[in-house]
Specification:
Structural class: alpha+beta
Radius of gyration: 15 Å
Number of domains: 1
Strand order of the largest sheet: 1-2-3-4-5-6-7-8
CATH superfamily: Calycin beta-barrel core domain
Number of helices: 4
Length: 185
């Protein structure tokens, strides 16, 4: 189970399609994007995600930016009997809102955000000849409106995924960052 936990965070961030096809938020503003987000929904073709999606709950993502402009993400996931914390770092790609983790061959793009209520994030992970795609709906509050969920669902086929891969994550007040076990990712 412990070996699967880091994969869970990666699974939620996995991506499939070529990065150039995925749009990035025009005029992306890192300062406005930083802060706490809730993962309200996720969709992915990652096998580990697909196995676990029905039992997952909403998690917390805290996003900050380094002085160099890189994106640092801390994820807090409620799991069966504990909370797990993951820390990820993505280097800026030269385009605002587009970040890369070269070692893991991951490409992260903020497709759309209004900064105050929601963000839609796309990630592509290349592993050998296998590609994985993920799309996440982040919200500032734990609840996502039906209209926002509908907007998210409409984007699913545009990134090569299907609605049966979707997990709308129920609320979770179980985990706070200070209650977590840290995972290396």
């Amino acid at each position: 189970m412990t070996a699967v936990l880091p994969s869970l965070a990666l699974a939620l961030l996995c991506l499939l399609r070529a990065g150039a096809e995925v749009p990035v938020q025009p005029g992306f503003n890192a300062e406005k994007f930083a802060g706490t987000w809730h993962v309200a929904a996720a969709v992915s073709n990652c096998p580990k995600f697909l196995k676990m999606k029905d039992g997952m709950k909403s998690s917390i993502a805290t996003i900050s930016f380094t002085p160099e402009g890189d994106l640092a993400m801390k994820l807090v996931w409620p799991l069966l009997d504990k909370c797990q914390k993951f820390e990820l770092l993505f280097q800026q790609s030269g385009q605002a809102g587009h970040y890369m983790a070269a070692q893991e061959k991951r490409d992260l793009r903020v497709m759309e955000t209004d900064y105050g209520h929601y963000a839609i994030v796309h990630e592509l992970q290349q592993s050998g000849q296998e590609s994985r795609t993920a799309l996440q709906l982040l919200t500032r509050e734990q609840d996502a409106s039906p209209q926002l969920l509908q907007k998210f669902k409409e984007l699913i086929p545009t990134v090569g995924l299907t609605k049966d891969m979707l997990a709308v994550l129920p609320k979770s007040g179980e985990c706070q960052e200070d209650q977590c076990t840290k995972a290396i990712s």
